[in-house]
Structures are given as C-alpha cells and as structure tokens.
Amino acid sequence: SSTDYRLSEDQKEYLTTMVEDLSAYKMFKGFTLRDEPSIAHAKTFGTVTEYLNSLKPDAFYYTSLLPIYCNDFTKFSQENTTDRELAYKDYIDAFSDEIGTFVYDSYPLWKDPVRGTTSLDATWFQNLRLVAESAKEKDYDPGITIQSCAFGSAGAQDTSQHKRAITSKADVPFKLYPS
Question: Residue 4: what are its φ and ψ, rounded to 5°?
C-alpha cells in the first residue's frame, strides 16, 4: 500500500458514494481508474485501489498501462535510463506493487492503409514476456486490452501504420490467446 499519498475526506466521501451507487446494479463489477498513466501515478493509484477494495473487495478496479512501444518511455521509469526494457519493467513492477494487478494496452496487428498489408508489431512478444515474468515473480493476473474497432485517421492519403481493428473471426483468438 502507498504511504506517499493520502485521500482527503472529500475524496473518500466521493468514492464511497460512487461505489455505493454503482453497487446497486447487478452488472457493476468494477471500473477503470485511469488509462495509460505515468509511473509517477503508481502510488496514488495504490492508495485509491486500497480504499476502493475496503469498500467493495469483490469488485475489480484496474488501471490500463501503456504498451512498451509507447513513444514517450520516460513515463516508464523515474530513473534516468535509455534502456526501454528496463524502464518498462520498472513501470509494470511499480503498478503491480501498488495496485496488485493491471491490464495493459497492446495492439499486435498493424495495417498500412495504402499498401493494404498487415504486420505484427515487433514488440508484441517482448511486452508479453515482460508482463508474464513480472506476473509470475509477483503472483498476479494481468490482462491485455484488445482493440475491436478502428480508430485514428486511416484514410487513403495517410501512409502511416494504424492499429488494426478485428476484421475476421481469426483475429479474435490471436488477440485473446495471450491473455
């Protein structure tokens, strides 16, 4: 649990009311606390998760972490490093230590809209390995966010690669298998 961040009484009241209100619905199972935070937020989310678990321990409160291919990998580590893999390990370890588990964004299939080709992201297996090693060492169950729809500007004039939506039944097991 975190000792660097304390919830105010107003924050506790807000969280308590929110969880009580949502718990009235059978479909409430938990929620995402934040999408793609930097490592600087790990202790804050640890404190919030600890409090939420005290209110409703059977719910799932999670944070969705950045993938290793994130352009700004200074978000991964508070150390001054140029080693992306080491920085990413610091990142996932910080969140697993503070919140217990997480999901992470990783979209393995990339499509070039101009060429019409699809490729596997080069960091897909590296990301899986690092998260799996951390999960095994620290005994937690991570998850992977899969993308099921297209986003971004993938017009014919755009020559950059874009994350690819599920376009066939064959895509689903590929994206779900590692999780």
Answer: -90, -10
